[in-house]
Amino acid sequence: MSTYRTSPDPKLTGMPPGIPFIIGNEAAERFSFYGMKTILAVFMTKY
């Protein structure tokens, strides 16, 4: 007779290990984009 699992394996649930790096990369990309946008605006109005 076969046995069936009724709940998922707790080790396989949750997020993959690479997701924090993807989120960190996106946050750094947004930070650099808005930083460069601000620097460009200051440069264009001052010079």
How would you describe this protein?
The structure is a single chain. By secondary structure, the protein is an all-alpha fold. It has a domain at 19-46. The protein is 60% helix and 0% strand. The chain is built from one helix and no strands. It has one helix at residues 19-46. The model has no long low-confidence stretch (mean pLDDT 90).
- SSE order: H
How many β-strand stretches? 0
Decide which structural class fits the backbone. Answer: mainly alpha
* C-alpha-based Rg, rounded: 23 Å
Q: In whole angstroms, how far apart are the ends?
A: 81 Å
Strand content range? under 5%
Mean pLDDT: 90
Please summarize the sheet with the most strands.
none
The coarse silhouette is: rod-shaped
| Low-pLDDT runs | none
Notable characteristics:
single chain; 47 residues; mainly alpha; 0% strand; rod-shaped
Briefly characterize the structure.
With 47 residues, the chain is mainly α.
Q: Which SSEs are present, and which pair or pack?
A:
Blueprint lengths: L18 H28 L1
